[in-house]
C-alpha cells in the first residue's frame, strides 16, 4: 500500500466557492464559512492545497486582499496551515498526519509509530487489549456552543442507549475527572484542541458534519422569489449556514433566522421553505421543512449501540 505522503493531494477548485458581492454577509466571511464547511464535511481533506490569494481573487473576480483576510482568519482558527515558501494547505484537524484510507493501512501506521517510539510488539498488543477491555460507561459531548451540544446529544440518543452528557471544553481544566471513563465526542476540527487537555487514555471520536448539497439544491431549484427561514438552537450553526446560503439568496430570495429559546412552537407557514436542525425541527410548523441532521456517521463501538 502506498504511504500517506504518496497520495496525490487535490487542490481547492474555485468553483466550489460561490460568492454574492451584494449580500449583507461580507465576502471574506462567505469565503471563511464555506471553506470551513468544505473541511468539516470532508470535501477538503488534511494536506490539500488552496489557491494563492491572487489565484482565488482572479477566479472569483474579487480583490486579493479580501481573500487574504479570509485565509488569515482560517489560519488563526487552525483550519488552514501556512508554511514558509509552500502553498496554504488544510491543517491536520486531529493534530497528526491524515490516516490511511483503509484499516490495514491504519494498523501498519500504528505498528510503525509504536516501533519508532521504542515500544515492542508485545507491549503494543497488551496495551490494545487493555484499552478494549476498559469500555466507556457514558458519552461526553464537548463543544463551546451549547446549541451544538444539544443537537449532537439529541442525534446520538437515536443510536445509543448509554448515558450522554454535554459540557463546554473549558470545564476540562477546572474538573480533570469530567472525562474520566467517558467516550468523548466532538465535531471535526475540535479534536486537536481537546486532545491535549483530555486524560491520556481517554477515547475521542470526532465526526464530520453531513454534506449540505441537498438543501442547497432545493434552494437552487426555487424559480420564484421565495421567503426562506433558517432555524437552529445553535448560534454557530446559524453563522455557518448563513455564510453558505448567502450566495444562493442574492436579491431573489429573503432569509430570516430564528434561534428558539423556549419550547414554544414556531408558526412559519408564511415561509416557502424552512431549513432547521434536528432539534428545532420539532418546534416548527411550516409548509415545507427540511430537517438537517448534523451528522449521519455515528460509528460507535458495539457495546454502546442500542
Tag the structure with descriptive keywords.
306 residues; disordered C terminus; alpha/beta; 34% helix; Arc Repressor Mutant, subunit A; 15% strand; 4-stranded parallel beta sheet; 10 helices
Q: How many individual helices?
A: 10
Structural class comes to alpha/beta
Radius of gyration: 21 Å
Question: Could you give the distance between the termini?
Answer: 36 Å
CATH fold category name of the domain at 4-90:
Arc Repressor Mutant, subunit A
Secondary structure elements and pairings:
Layout: H1 27-40, H2 53-60, H3 64-76, E1 80-81, E2 89-90, H4 103-116, H5 121-133, E3 138-142, H6 146-156, E4 164-167, H7 171-174, E5 182-187, H8 191-194, E6 204-207, H9 213-220, E7 227-231, H10 235-249, E8 254-258, E9 266-267, E10 273-277, E11 284-285, E12 289-292
Parallel strand pairs: 3-4, 3-5, 5-6, 7-8, 7-10, 9-11, 10-12
Antiparallel strand pairs: 1-2
Helix pairs in contact: 1-3, 1-10, 2-3
Amino acid at each position: 500500500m502506498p504511504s500517506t505522503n504518496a497520495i496525490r493531494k487535490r487542490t481547492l477548485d474555485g468553483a466550489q466557492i460561490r460568492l454574492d458581492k451584494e449580500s449583507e454577509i461580507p465576502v471574506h466571511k462567505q469565503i471563511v464559512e464555506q471553506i470551513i464547511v468544505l473541511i468539516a464535511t470532508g470535501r477538503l481533506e488534511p494536506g490539500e492545497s488552496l489557491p494563492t490569494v491572487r489565484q482565488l481573487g482572479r477566479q472569483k473576480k474579487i480583490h486579493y486582499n479580501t481573500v487574504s483576510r479570509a485565509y488569515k482568519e482560517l489560519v488563526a482558527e487552525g483550519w488552514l496551515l501556512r508554511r514558509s515558501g509552500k502553498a496554504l494547505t488544510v491543517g491536520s484537524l486531529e493534530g497528526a498526519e491524515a490516516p490511511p484510507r483503509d484499516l490495514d493501512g491504519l494498523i501498519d501506521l500504528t505498528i510503525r509509530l509504536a516501533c519508532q517510539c521504542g515500544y515492542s510488539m508485545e507491549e503494543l498488543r497488551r496495551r490494545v487489549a487493555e484499552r478494549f477491555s476498559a469500555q466507556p460507561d457514558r458519552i461526553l459531548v464537548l463543544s463551546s456552543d451549547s446549541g451544538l451540544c444539544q443537537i449532537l446529544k439529541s442525534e446520538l440518543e437515536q443510536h445509543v442507549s448509554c448515558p450522554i452528557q454535554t459540557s463546554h471544553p473549558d470545564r476540562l481544566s477546572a474538573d480533570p475527572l469530567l472525562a474520566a471513563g467517558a467516550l468523548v465526542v466532538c465535531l471535526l476540527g475540535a479534536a486537536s484542541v481537546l486532545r491535549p487537555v483530555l486524560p491520556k487514555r481517554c477515547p475521542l471520536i470526532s465526526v464530520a458534519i453531513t454534506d449540505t448539497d441537498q438543501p442547497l439544491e432545493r434552494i437552487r431549484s426555487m424559480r420564484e422569489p421565495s421567503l426562506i427561514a433558517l432555524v437552529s438552537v445553535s448560534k454557530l450553526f446559524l453563522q455557518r449556514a448563513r455564510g453558505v446560503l448567502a450566495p444562493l439568496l442574492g436579491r431573489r430570495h429573503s432569509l430570516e433566522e430564528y434561534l428558539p429559546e423556549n419550547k414554544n412552537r414556531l408558526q412559519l407557514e408564511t415561509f416557502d421553505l424552512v431549513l432547521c436542525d434536528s432539534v428545532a425541527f420539532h418546534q416548527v410548523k411550516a409548509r415545507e421543512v427540511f430537517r438537517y441532521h448534523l451528522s449521519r456517521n455515528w460509528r460507535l463501538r458495539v457495546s454502546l449501540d442500542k
